[in-house]
Amino acid sequence: MKGILFAVNYKYREVLIIRARGGSKSHDVMIVCLFFVYLGFEVIYYCSEGKQMKRPKKYMRNIIKYSFLKYCVIPSEWLKESIEFYGKGQITIENLSEGAGRSPRADVVVFDEEAQVDEDAYNAAEYVLQGSDLGLTVHTSTPVLGTTFNENYDRLKQIETEIGAELVFERKYNEIHFLVDTPEKVAAYEMKKRKQAPWFFRQENECSFELRSGAVFRDVIYEPYSDELQELIRDQIDCSGIDWNPAAGHCLGSIKWLPDYSAVVVTHEINLGPGYALELSDSMFKKIIPWFTNGNKLVIEDGGINIPYVKWFKEKLNEFNVSWSNPSWRKEEWDNQDIAKMAACTYIMQHGITIYVDKVRFPDTAKCIRETHWDEDAKGSNPKLAKDKSNSPHFLDTFLHAISDKNRSDYNIEMGRFY
Description:
This protein has 15 helices and 14 strands. The protein has helices at residues 2-7, 25-38, 54-65, 98-102, 119-125, 148-163, 183-195, 198-205, 227-233, 282-288, 307-319, 339-350, 363-370, 395-402, 405-408, and strands at 14-19, 42-47, 82-84, 90-95, 108-112, 136-140, 168-171, 220-221, 239-243, 250-257, 263-273, 297-302, 329-333, 354-356.
């Protein structure tokens, strides 16, 4: 917990804490919160839901009751969720809702079990620290992939490299002394490893960001591309895809296949900008032209609400004297049941194809691929991909359009190697 206090000296007064389940995370954070209250600061401790407020309230009362802090509390202010000290310091424990996040002001804010918070409520609460000279934020949770907590983890890890200071503090189960200080406890830990689902064990005990239903793509390499890999794809053509999204922005992504088609390498991600068909510009079309000329291939999303965008695309082809029947670009319509989309994913999985995506150069594509998961609420016996939010970047869809068989149909691919 010393890291929280050291963070006060940094330009970025923000820390993130991950501990294995049972690692006394909330208790230790509460101690630090009461230290700031003793100094006269105001602290808000947000819980992701009402039933999670019970434990931090218990810790707060016990820490005060069995320490000198009991002499600092104003008797009339000894309430269930809020306590005020004589030095004007105060701590309030609240259930994080959008309404609760908008009005308060504080010097320190804690987001407990942040992986479970409602996104709108979290965004409202980000303004709680405005006007404070201290302005310290503490994120703490069990890690879950594709959540607000995951985004803050990635962001703070990046800031760590820029400022050369530790802002993220991780403690795995076997690194917490009182959890493994006897042979019996070690044996219980090993039993957990054998009994629990691998993803659940990693999430609860090894501070690993996991998807509850398991990631769809397993063989993915997120590291920078080696010189050997770049040399292998240097003369390969670009296969690209466009997904229309007027809210988050129309996305164009591009990939190259290895010569033996054993792997696919992400080479570009471009946000073409938002807007409906009538709002799209010539400059946007000019950005698209290189991706279906000079031997490159392009698949654009068609069908349903995407038809106006395809119509706009064809009109621009005529304006720019490009044959709209050019075989280097094709349309692809995905049905409401996502059967075609599933087919694209299945092609990658069933053929053991490795995906290379540099998470530094192509962060949105890497994030979308990493967080692709199965829909736990899907009806029927067939698996179904979970839907992206409408305001999220749709680079997964551009990736799947790029690897589509419509982009591969002119290739002489020897499929016998897979069998």
